Amino acid sequence: MTHSPQSAYASAGVDIEAGDRAVELMKASVIRTRRPEVLGGLGGFAGFFDASALKSYRQPVLATSTDGVGTKVAIAQAMDKHDTIGQDLIGMLVDDLVVSGAEPLFVTDYIACGRVVPERIAAIVSGIADACVLAGCSLVGGETAEHPGLLGPDEYDIAGATTGVVERDSILGPDRVKPGDAIIGMVSSGLHSNGYSLVRHVLLKQAGWSLERHVDELGRTLGEELLEPTRIYALDVMDLIVKAEIHAMSHITGGGLANNVARVIPDGMRAVLQRSSWTPPAIFQLVQSVGSLSQRDVDATLNMGVGMVAILPQDQVPAALAALQARGVRSWVLGEIVEHDGPGAAELV
């Protein structure tokens, strides 16, 4: 008995028809993200963005970033809730990009799964699209790959890449940072998308807590807290750059607060971050106490309630705080830049 190529592929665990249905379901989500520079529609081999839009720049520099969401996908899968994990992906992508001063233009995504369930894929892409709208960029294409035998039927992973543009002489970074500069912190929405291997090990494995467990300190279930989407700062940051003189910025992701701030500190300077200037939200204190973790361990892993940091002249602080407040971003003076013998560094004191 012979089989057609499609039925042979299906017998190997790949459902082409399910993939086609998933594409149809996600089309409306992708359309919501469309910027005027985007050409064509979904379903081609490549996405198109009209680069003539960059003619207004004197010396446009393209910036790019790629990332995933790590083991936070395991929480989404366990809770069977898939419409927010896409915001985590976009947050990781665009907020890495905007710290250079670049405006995010477009995004492509990649979803690998053990089995294509069209409604699940559509929910993931819906979350990605919603977040693209929040970031002001377009979702111009992507790929959904079915990997039976490599991933379980209900397992998936997501990743993506984004491209943006910035004037060359407007690129933010360590070369602009000066002694005496102030450091502003911006509140995170929670854990964001980093440190989940540690958090899951402490709360789910060691403590044996269930995702359905109501935690009084959190005011909701553990699963609801752990699935809280990453805050997207892209449009807030783009507005901030217009309203105040910014020297450098840092997106606080894997590695924690001090380690990420250190990445934008030049040699001969140190960022001194005042621990007393804010109180980390309950989830961070909970992970530390339940896991009997040292302060050093949590500082080096979690964002501790600070999702984004801006470095700027002291006289620009009022304008910066006012701009962020107007956009609903809670922010405060977190520390300052001081002179220091040796490589650029940051420390919590």
Automatic annotation (TrEMBL):
Pfam families in the record: AIRS, AIRS_C
GO biological process, one term: 'de novo' IMP biosynthetic process
UniProt similarity note: Belongs to the AIR synthase family.
Compartmental location: Cytoplasm
Enzyme class, spelled out: ligase
Record organism: Tessaracoccus antarcticus
Organism superkingdom: Bacteria
Entry keywords, A to Z: ATP-binding, Cytoplasm, Ligase, Nucleotide-binding, Purine biosynthesis
All residue ranges annotated as the PurM-like N-terminal domain in the record: 54-166
Name assigned to this protein: Phosphoribosylformylglycinamidine cyclo-ligase
GO cellular component: cytosol
One Gene Ontology term of the molecular function aspect: phosphoribosylamine-glycine ligase activity
Primary location group: cytoplasm
Catalytic activity: 2-formamido-N(1)-(5-O-phospho-beta-D-ribosyl)acetamidine + ATP = 5-amino-1-(5-phospho-beta-D-ribosyl)imidazole + ADP + phosphate + H(+)
CDD domains listed in its UniProt record: PurM
Domain (PurM-like C-terminal): residue spans on this chain: 178-342
Pathway assignment: Purine metabolism; IMP biosynthesis via de novo pathway; 5-amino-1-(5-phospho-D-ribosyl)imidazole from N(2)-formyl-N(1)-(5-phospho-D-ribosyl)glycinamide: step 2/2
